[in-house]
């Protein structure tokens, strides 16, 4: 074998070795990148959740701390600060207020206060709207967002997710000759904003997912898929 062939063979062996090393390097880099993304997906939701909870607790502690007279502040009697103490105090205070207004004397003062509020033109409108919203979301007697449905909107062939609040009743119901639903159409990523539409019941496709799953689906922009959906054929 000539010296030229030996040199060519050595060059080929070196090239093959470099290509293999490069392939191993890229494979290792791809694995490390996958591990990094997995670590982010695992830790980011937990970290963000705890961070937001911590910020909320600190905000409540600061708010309650301003409401408590300095001479009664726990910080004056304890050698250290207890995180979340303000939140506990707030929950206890709200529970005691609820117990008071659930009684006869509390209901009397509540009705008296509402009577005074309703006599003020602008304040009465704001109070009435806020009261209805809170009663809708916190009262167990209502059918607030009882189910999740799909409907074709804004035109045929395009589907959108909606939350059924109740069946249409009253004066608006009398304008239709069939059963109608009040459907709230949320926006992404903020489901608290949106708009209300009246839809014939037969034009909606009821889903098996719960309201909470539907809200997560809307907030994530479709990235967080619900666990279960009723399998229905869209016609």
Textual characterization of the structure:
The chain has 235 residues and is α+β, with helices and mostly antiparallel strands. It folds into three domains: 1-97; 103-138, no CATH class; 147-219, no CATH class. The chain is 55% helix and 14% strand. The chain has helices at residues 3-67, 85-102, 104-118, 121-138, 170-173, 211-219; strands spanning 147-152, 159-167, 180-186, 194-200, 204-206. Strands 4-3-2-1-5 form a five-stranded antiparallel β-sheet, with helices on one face. β3 and β4 form a beta hairpin. Residues 228-233 have low confidence and may be disordered.
Briefly summarize what is shown.
It is built from 6 helices and 5 strands, in the order H-H-H-H-E-E-H-E-E-E-H. By secondary structure, it is of the alpha+beta class.
Unreliable parts: 228-233
Quaternary structure state of the chains depicted:
single chain
What is the radius of gyration computed over CA atoms, rounded to a whole number of angstroms? 31 Å
SS elements, strand count: 5
* H/E series: HHHHEEHEEEH
Determine the N-to-C terminus distance: 76 Å
Task: Describe the strand arrangement of the main beta sheet, using strand numbers.
Answer: 4-3-2-1-5
Helical proportion, percent range:
40-55%
- Main sheet specs: 5 strands, antiparallel
